[in-house]
TrEMBL record:
It comes from the Bacteria. GO terms for molecular function: lyase activity. Belongs to the enoyl-CoA hydratase/isomerase family. Keywords: Lyase. It holds the Pfam family ECH_1. One of its GO terms (biological process) is fatty acid beta-oxidation. CDD domains: crotonase-like. This is Methylmalonyl-CoA decarboxylase. InterPro entries: ClpP/crotonase-like_dom_sf (IPR029045), Enoyl-CoA_hyd/isom_CS (IPR018376), Enoyl-CoA_hydra/iso (IPR001753), Enoyl-CoA_hydra_C (IPR014748).
Amino acid sequence: MSLVKVEFLEKVGIITLNNTQKLNALSAQLVDDIIEALDNFQKQKIHIIILRAPEGSKVWSAGHDVKELPSKMRDPLSYYDSLEVLLRAVEEYPGPVIAMVHGSVYGGACDLIMTCDMVIADKTAKFAMTPAKLGVPYNSTGILHFMNRLPINIAKEMFFTAELVPADRALNVGIINHLVAEEELLSFTLNLAATISTRSMLSIEVIKEQFRVLSKAYSITPSAFERVQGMRRKVYDSHDYEEAITAFLEKRPAHFKGE
């Protein structure tokens, strides 16, 4: 049974995350269903996608499914991890992917929001980047998504505090493109998509790809890359990482030792 609802409305493909019993956590199955929907829309030459949660959801997505994270001794966010595959699929989709946000967005889902081309939200929207709560050594690609979107001090605050950023502030710092009334969220997003659909989609496809390529035009020496990977391994091999995952599954506060 698919964990997404797929519909076509006014020349726009709409993908609704539809596993609310698990707070739309980005499990491998949910991710596979989103990617399958994107692939099908691409084959149908549907140029504009809206990614949303069901109407009235208090949580847009709880982020990476923690139960699927490795307990220790393996990179939890490697190149072929399901979340990373999804982020690349959104980046590489040949047309705008618009996140329509009602409710709170956590962790890997916040990275997904940052990877979308635009974000439209209402007052219920809140955004938290939570790897420091789980002892997760976030990967360089994910950090770059935030660096490309936000002032670096704001990105650092999100990662360091893991606190929710309310909708008003999210608009001010650049997470959100437009903040609209809850009852206008869908109509506003569809109107924006309708405006885009009147433009040259070939031009937009090429411009989006240029944004993607240029946003990754950072040089790094092999030794610097190896150092970053070594630092990340120090974290995912640590007591803190194992403790955080265990504490989450046991529904208790984690006790970090910095080792």
